[in-house]
Design goal:
single chain, Glutathione S-transferase Yfyf (Class Pi), Chain A, domain 2, Glutaredoxin, globular, 12 helices
Length: 277
């Protein structure tokens, strides 16, 4: 068996794949790091594996899989170890609603918050020519538009506001479902719902803004603490972040935290936010 994971240390999507491998007890996978900041995702050889120029990419005995949510499901189906999906079909469908929420809103939300807090500064150090060259390589046109808007407007770009709203909807849901005393969002079983959400919750904590949503949500806060207490979280999320990244995330988050709070308060007071309270 040959399992190769192309990934990047502080990449939320890579963390999902690594968490799934860890929870299934797969230890003999081969690491191929793709440095996103050096543009290695645009290498022609890597693009043959992943034409979207993103991580992760899983290669299992020569079979290539992309998209982190699908990779996590594949890992659960492919390898022995604790099941990461409920056995009941209805419960599985409920679990997949969290994956759907990640793919349809949470991922972009964390992306724009991270970008406005940290990565934007890197782009602003580029010359106009360097910036244009960098953006021209971003294959996803929606992502390119987000980067361009945040480069121009920072955390006040509309994409950040929409991201804040999507996260509010998520945390309203988790707080409600946890009211019955269950330890995990799908019940007594730790599932792919937690694996798909954990990296995004971690990023919010590392940029020092998660309390904007969780300060008055003790059930969701406790749930996140249980996630962090798992060995897989330490090994596949925390251990892959270096000291410079810790500093960059925290300092960047502090610069935008007030704007994030303003966005959340505006959403709660307007734009149908009342239905999520």
């Amino acid at each position: 068996m040959s399992v190769i994971l192309y990934h990047f240390g502080n990449s939320v999507c890579s963390e999902k794949a690594r968490l799934a491998l860890n929870e299934k007890g797969v230890r003999n996978w081969q690491s191929r790091e793709v440095d996103l900041f050096k543009g290695e995702q645009f290498d022609p050889e890597y693009l043959k594996l992943n034409p979207k120029a993103v991580v992760p990419t899983l290669v299992d005995d020569g079979k290539v899989l992309v998209e982190s949510t699908l990779i996590a499901e594949y890992i659960d189906d492919r390898f022995d170890g604790p099941a990461l999906k409920p056995a009941d079909p209805f419960a599985q469908a409920q679990m997949r609603l969290y994956s759907k929420a990640v793919d349809e809103g949470v991922h972009q939300a964390i992306g724009v918050i991270s970008f406005s807090a940290m990565f934007m500064d890197r782009l602003r150090k580029m010359s106009p020519e360097e910036l244009a060259a960098h953006l021209s390589k971003v294959i996803d046109l929606e992502r390119r538009d987000r980067y361009t808007a945040i480069h121009a407007h920072g955390a006040r770009a509309p994409h950040v506001y929409r991201g804040v709203a999507n996260l509010e909807k998520l945390f309203q849901k988790t707080e409600k479902v946890l009211e019955d005393g269950r330890p995990w969002v799908c019940g007594d079983q730790f599932t792919l719902a937690e694996i798909n959400l954990a990296p995004y919750l971690a990023r919010l904590e590392y940029v020092n803004v998660i309390d904007v949503w969780l300060a008055k949500r003790p059930l969701s806060a406790g749930w996140f603490e249980r996630i962090k207490a798992r060995a897989s979280f330490q090994e596949e999320v925390v251990n892959w972040i270096d000291s410079a990244e810790w500093k960059e995330m925290r300092e960047g988050g502090l610069r935008v935290k007030d704007i994030i709070q303003e966005n959340l308060e505006h959403f709660r007071a307007n734009d149908f936010g009342a239905q999520y309270r």
